[in-house]
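The protein record filed here.
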Amino acid sequence: MRGFGDLEAVIMDRLWSWKRPVTVREVLEDLRAYRDIAYTTVMTVMDNLHRKGALTREKDGRAWRYQPVRNRDEYAADLLSTVLDEAGDRGAALMRFVGGMRPSEVDALRRALAERQGRRRRT
């Protein structure tokens, strides 16, 4: 998995915030509120995201309705995993990452690890 390009990220952000299938026209109208952009540009980017596996789509009359395959948190987790896979030393990369976390994030990480350990003991 890789990160999104600039326009891909903007479109994915809109789709994640709507939490429902949307058409290219809906995304276009939303984007045009703050940038000049062509219908074909939005259509091409959304089709590319579909081909890359980031979006699903279903026909609705003559249009397609698109929605993300994964939610924002799942995508972020997959991206973090990919970055760690590319690190020379996963442990060292994790330590640097944790070293930059806020205390509340460290607490959340501790809770997640404790929960994972609890599940592991039950199986």
Q: What stands out?
A: The chain has a mean pLDDT of 92. The two ends are 30 Å apart (CA to CA). The chain has two domains: 6-68, 72-122.
